[in-house]
Amino acid sequence: MSAAKLVYKANQIATFFQSQSPDEAAAGVAAHINKFWEPRMRRQLADILRHDDNGLKPLVIEAAGDIHFPQTTS
Amino acid sequence: MKLIQEPDFGTPAVASEKTVTLTVDGFEVTVPEGTSIMRAAAEAGIAIPKLCATDLVKSFGSCRLCLVEIDGRRGTPSSCTTPAADGLVVHTQTDRLKKLRRGVMELYISDHPLDCLTCAANGDCELQDMAGAVGLRDVRYGYDGENHVKAKASDGTDNFRWMAKDETNPYFTYDPSKCIVCSRCVRACEEVQGTFALTIEGRGFESRVSPGAHESFLGSECVSCGACVQACPTGTLQEKSIIEIGQPEHSLVTTCAYCGVGCSFKAEMRGDELVRMLAYKDGKANHGHSCVKGRFAYGYANHGDRILNPMIREKTSDPWREVSWEEALSHVASEFRRLQYQHGRESIGVITSSRCTNEETFLVQKLARAVFGNNNTDTCARVCHSPTGYGLGQTFGTSAGTQDFDSVEQSDVILVIGANPTDGHPVFGSRLKKRIRQGAKLIVIDPRRIDLVRTPHVEAAHHLPLRPGTNVAVLTSLAHVIVTETLYDEAFIRERCDWDEFQDWAEFVSREENSPETVGALSGVDPEEIRGAARLYATGGNGAIYYGLGVTEHSQGSTTVMAIANLAMATGNLGRPGVGVNPLRGQNNVQGSCDMGSFPHEFPGYRHVSIDEVRESFEKIWGVSLNDEPGLRINNMLDAAVEGSFKGIYIQGEDILQSDPDTHHVAAGLAAMECVVVHDLFLNETANYAHVFLPGSTFLEKDGTFTNAERRINRVRKVMTPRAGYADWEVTQEIANAMGANWTYTHPSQIMAEIALTTPSFTGVTYELLDEKGSIQWPCNDKAPEGTPIMHVDGFVRGKGKFIRTEYVATDERTGPRFPLLLTTGRILSQYNVGAQTRRTANSVWHEEDRLEINPIDAEVRGVKDGDWVRIASRAGETSLRALITDRVVPGVVYTTFHHPSTQANVVTTDYSDWATSCPEYKVTAVQISPSNGQSDWQLEYEDQARRARRIASSVDAAE
C-alpha cells in the first residue's frame, strides 16, 4: 500500500476514536490496527513512524506504543 | 421424486387464539375464529369446488362454485366468504348444490375454448379439474352467441369481443380467450405484489383483465413478479417455458441465488430440464411470492456464454487454451506453491463468494487458512456489508439482522435508510408495502425519491432527501431530537444497556452541532422533517429500521451502522417482533459468507484469529497450525500486488474488476499478479486478467445452503448435474488436495457437520434438521435448538448494549468548481449487481443499459437532453452513458446503476473507503457531466481489450 494511503487510513481511524472518550482514544486506535491490519501494513506503519513530519495525526503517534509491530518478514 | 403439490386451502390462514368448532359433512373441525368455511373444510380434508378462491389472496366470492348449505340458514352461501362459527352444520354436497354448480360450470365452459388437449395448462388447470369435480357432461349453449373465444363470428365477421394473445412479456403470455375473470391475478397484483398494475375493465359480460389502462403487459406498470401467473387457475396467464416444454413431472425445493431475501422456490423439472421456478408457499422468507429475477431469470444457467471446460494461459495477452480438469488443477497447485516458495507464505490468497453456498465458502477460507497457511481471505461483503459486521458487532455483539422478515407484519413505524427494497429486495419490498397499506407509517431517508416514497396506496410520512455522505449527521440529529425531547425509553436503556455510556452519548447528541437546524443546513434536509421523523420513530409504536448499502458504502459506513443501533437502543426498539435493526443483504449469501469466516481477521462465527482457544479448536480438527495474524483485505491484496509482495489469487464467484471501486487500480493489481485463478460461470471482467479459468456451477447444479438477511439457513438442492463436471466445493477440494491436503468430503452435508462442530452459533445445524424444519435461523445450538427468529430478546449478545458516539465527519470526496455534482449508485429491479446472470436473460428488455439520472435543472444548465450521451468525470476517471432526466434526484445529485460492464461506473468511483472496514465509498463521488458524442476512449479501449482477453484458442481457430 502506498505510504500516503496508509497514513490516510490510520488518520481516518484516529478521527473516529478522537470523538470517543479521551481515556480510550489511543488504546482504541491501537486495538483497531492490531485487530485488522495485516503485518505488512503494520510494518510499513512502523517505517512511516520513524520519519518526522510523517503526516500522521497525534493520536496515531500516541497509539504507536500499543501497536504490535512485527519484527521480521515472514 | 415427485411433483410437490402444495395444498390450497382456498383462503389465507387466520391468526386467532380463539377457536370455533363446526361440523362439515359430519366431521367436526376446530379452526381459529375468522377462518372461512372453505378453509375449515379443507383442513378436514374436504375440498369444496372453487375457482376464484386461493389461499394466496383474500376471498372474493365471485365464482359461485364453492356454495354450501348450512343447517338453519337460508340459501347457499359461498364458503370462501362465510366465516366458520361454533356449532355450524355445513353440507358441501347436496342435490341442490350439485345442480347449481353444474349450472355455473356450464356457463363458464360456454365461453371457454375446448382446446384442452393442446392447451399448455393441460394437466395443471383448475377449470378442467372443476369441470370434472362437478360432473359437467354437457354444454347446452353452443358457441354461436356472444363469446370471447373465437376471432371470427359464425358469419365470418370479426368478433369484437375477442382479443389477441398478449405475448409482450418475455416470460409469460396472456390469452384473454381463456380468461374466466376470476380476478385472482388482479388481487395477487394488489395484495401480494402491491403494484396494482392489473384491473378488470368493463362490466358484466364485457369484463376483462387489463394491464394498466388497456395496455400490453410489457407496456404497463407490471413488474413481472409472476404472482398473477401463479394465481391464474387456467392457461390464461401461462409461463412461456411451459408452453415450450410442457408440464413438469418432479420438483425440488431450493433457494433463489439472487438477493439476500432468500426466497424458496420449487424447481419444477422434466427430466433434467428445468421447466419453471415456482414460488414455494411454505418458504419462510417469501410465503409463496417471487420477483422477476428468481421466478424467471434463470436462463443464464444454460446460456451459450457458459464456460464448461477449464482453461489456462501463460500470459493474459494469450488466447485461452482448454485443458483437462487434472491439468488445470495441478497447474494451479504448482503455481501457488511456487509463488509461496519464491515470495513467501503470505504472497497468495483467496476471495470467497457471497453467491456460493455456505459449504463452498467455508472450504475456500479453509483453503487459505489451513492449506496456504495464511489468513489472506476476503469476500465481496467487503464492498457491501462489512460495516454492518463492525457496527453491529461493536454495539450489540454480533453481526446480524435482529429480526425475521415476518416481524414487519407487527411494525408500526418503518424507517428505510439507504435501501430501495422495491428494486433491490423486491419480495421483502412487497411485504413492507403490504404492512404500510395496513396502516404502518413509513420514513424514508434517501437522496433519491425511491418508489416507496410515493407509490400506489403507499406514501412516506417523511422523506428526508439528504445529500449523499451526510447519513451520520442526519441519524445523530434524529437522536438529538429523541434525547432533547426525552422521547427515549429509559426503562429499556437502564435494564439492557450501560446507563453511563448512554448518558455520555446523550450529552454528545444533545450538542448544538447535532441539532436539526445545524444538520439541516449541511444535509439539505428540512429541520422540521428531521424532528417529525424522530418523533414518529420514537413514539409511533413498534419501530423497525431497514437499511442497505446506502448506509454502509461510505467513509463513515461503520459509524452510520452504529448510529442506527444507537437509535434502536435509545427507543427500546429491540428484542421483540415488529422492531429491530435489519440490514438488507445484497446477495443471496452475504450473511452466510460473513458467518463462514470469509474475512481475514476472523474464523467462522466472528471470532478473531488471535484468540488462542478458537485457533486451537480448528487446529485440532484440521490438523495444522494456524496463523494468528489478520490477513489482507481485497483492497490491500491489490495494493500488495502492485508493490510486488502479493502474487497469486483464487477468486470464486466474484467479479472484482467490475464490482470493486477504482477500476484502474483493480486492473493494475490483477495485472501485477503471476497467477490469477478465476472460478466462475462466465468469462467475467476479472477473467480478462486471469491465467486460469475454472468453470463454476450454478445453484441448480449443487447441494448446499444459503443464509439470507434474516439469518435463515435455507437448503439449496441439486436439480441437475454440474454442466462442467464438478460442483464448486469439489473444485476447491481438488485444489486443496493437489496442494497436499487430504480432504475427503463426499457431500456438502459433511462440510456442514464440520461447521457445526467448530462454530458455536451453528452447533445444532444439520441437513436432517433443515429437511425437517425447512429452514433454521442461527443461532441454533443447545440454547436454541430450533433456531432464533429474533435476537437479543433477553439481553444483548455482548451483554449490555453499547452506545457509541457518532461524530459526523464530512467525507474528503467533496464537490468543488471542477466536480460540482455528487454521484450516487444503486440497483434496478430487473438486473442484479454486475449483471453477469441477468444480462444473460430476457430481463434486459426492462433495462438494456445503465442510464445517468439527472435533475432537469442540472441538465438544462449543461444543455443535456433526455437520452443524450453524457460524459461523467471524477477525480478517478471518466466514462460515458446516456442521460435520463428526472426529478427523482434533487439538483446537485446524479445517480446511476452499475449492471453493465460497458458503463464502467467504477472507473469513476474513488478509492475512499469506510474508516473501519475499508468498504468502498461507492455512494459519494464528486463528478462533472458534459454532453458527449458517445463512449469514452477508455470504454472503447476496454471493450477491445476485453474482447481480445476472451479469445479461446480452439474456438478461435474454428470460427475465424
UniProtKB/TrEMBL annotation, chain A:
Pfam families named in the record: FdsD
UniProt cross-references to InterPro entries, sorted A to Z: Formate_DH_dsu (IPR021074)
Lineage: Bacteria, Pseudomonadati, Pseudomonadota, Alphaproteobacteria, Hyphomicrobiales
Protein name, UniProt field: Formate dehydrogenase subunit delta
Organism of provenance: Breoghania corrubedonensis
Domain of life: Bacteria
TrEMBL record, chain B:
Chain segments annotated as transmembrane: none
MF terms in GO: 2 iron, 2 sulfur cluster binding; 4 iron, 4 sulfur cluster binding; formate dehydrogenase (NAD+) activity; metal ion binding; molybdopterin cofactor binding; NADH dehydrogenase activity
Protein name: Formate dehydrogenase alpha subunit
InterPro entries tied to this protein: 2Fe-2S_ferredoxin-like_sf, 2Fe-2S_ferredoxin-type, 4Fe4S_Fe-S-bd, 4Fe4S_Fe_S_CS, Asp_de-COase-like_dom_sf, Formate_Dh-H_N, Formate_DH_asu, MoPterin_dinucl-bd_dom
Biological process terms in GO annotation: formate metabolic process; respiratory electron transport chain
Sequence similarity: In the C-terminal section; belongs to the prokaryotic molybdopterin-containing oxidoreductase family.
Every 4Fe-4S His(Cys)3-ligated-type domain range: 96-135
Lineage start: Bacteria, Pseudomonadati, Pseudomonadota, Alphaproteobacteria, Hyphomicrobiales
Superkingdom assignment: Bacteria
Keyword 4Fe-4S: yes
Organism: Breoghania corrubedonensis
PROSITE patterns on file: 2FE2S_FER_2, 4FE4S_FER_1, 4FE4S_FER_2, 4FE4S_HC3, 4FE4S_MOW_BIS_MGD
